[in-house]
Design goal:
membrane; mainly alpha; transmembrane helix; TgpA-like_C; 50% helix; 343 residues; Transglutaminase domain-containing protein; 3 domains; 11 helices
Length: 343
């Protein structure tokens, strides 16, 4: 394993689909005394790289100064900024599009007060640097959801996330989470062990009851311990199978929504409207002609909610996705829209 200049791990081998590998990491937890220290010596290479800022508005600098006034240590200053973002702003994937030439962070902090995790992380990083605290934006994945049937965490594309790390002299890089509803990965340290034990215990109990029932004569299972064993075993098995069916149903609905969005892109591409790699789904929907824009926006909102917003599935999701796709195809056929760039 190698480490690149951005402190990212690089595998010496190509990671092919289906390859199984393990990663063991140690999450440092700085002590309260270390975090309470005042400003120490920041290494020159850290200062040169992670205090850089683009041209930002004076009110962004003033906000950073106001939020950290009277706060001593860099970590406590960073916490003051983080709390401000978590309690005064709203996480959403449906934030309005930026006006022309608008600064994304300035617009987020003083106008819309809502946005995705990228906006929360960008605002935190800019405010930290404006306060003289080295910071860097990090993109990756959250810990995902715990799978009680396998004992592992399931991490999907919808778990993609952005957060910030600040540099504290003597402690190194410390994770900072500003997006409401998300917790730092350090808060999940220690959870898997207990959950694995619980899953193992449930498997052991189920196996024990199955073995007991198998050893009982069929004619003696009318009551007593035998009936209780059968009842408990049946309950556990039904619960497991029910959970698996629920899991398949949830993934099925998610798959229908994602396929619906892919079908929309294919339908529009045939008319010359292709989504550029740099465009977000919402930006692409907003760029479409008026006849198809409303229904395309509906399909896009469904897709973003399930792909990135951790929205729970419901019985009407697949029907709504299919209906919207039918409407889009009908509008495309009737309006005969076609991009000029396709000719």
């Amino acid at each position: 394993i190698g480490v690149d200049r951005y402190a990212g791990m690089r595998s010496p081998l190509r990671l092919e689909p289906g390859m199984v590998y393990s990663v063991v990491s140690r999450v440092p937890v700085p002590t309260a005394a270390l975090l309470a220290r005042g400003h120490g010596d920041i290494p020159p290479h850290i200062r040169a790289r992670y205090l850089q800022l683009p041209a930002i508005s004076p009110r962004v600098r003033h906000l950073a100064t106001d939020l950290t006034a009277g706060v001593e240590s860099p970590y406590q200053q960073a916490e003051a900024i983080r709390r401000y973002l978590q309690h005064g702003f709203t996480y959403t994937l449906q934030a309005p599009l930026l006006p022309d030439r608008a600064d994304a962070v300035d617009e987020f902090l003083f106008v819309t007060h809502q946005g995705s995790c990228e906006l929360f992380a960008s605002a935190l990083a800019v405010l930290l640097r404006a306060a003289g605290i080295p910071a860097r934006l990090v993109t990756g994945y959250t810990t995902g959801s715990y799978n009680v049937f396998t004992g592992y965490y399931d991490v999907r594309n919808s778990d993609a996330h952005a957060w910030v790390e600040m540099f504290q002299p003597g402690a190194g890089w410390i994770e900072m989470e500003a997006t409401p509803g998300f917790v730092p990965s350090s808060d999940t340290v220690g959870r898997p062990v207990g959950q694995w034990l619980a899953a193992d215990a449930a498997s052991w109990v189920l196996g024990m009851f199955v073995r007991v029932v198998q050893q009982l004569p069929l004619g003696r299972m009318g009551g007593g311990a035998g009936a209780a064993g059968v009842l408990v075993s049946a309950t556990l098995v039904v619960g497991v199978l029910g959970g698996l069916r629920l899991r398949r149903r949830l993934h099925g609905s998610r798959g229908i929504v994602e396929r619906g969005y892919a079908d929309m892109l294919h339908t529009l591409a045939r008319r010359g409207f292709r989504r550029h790699a740099a465009m977000t789904p919402s930006e692409f929907a907003a760029s479409l002609p008026v006849p198809v824009r409303p229904v395309a926006a509906r399909i896009t909102r469904l897709f973003e909610s399930f792909r990135y917003g951790h929205r729970p599935t419901d019985a009407g999701t697949d029907a709504a996705s299919r209906q919207a796709l039918r409407e889009l195809r009908d509008v495309v056929r009737r309006s005969r829209i076609e991009s000029r760039r396709s000719t």
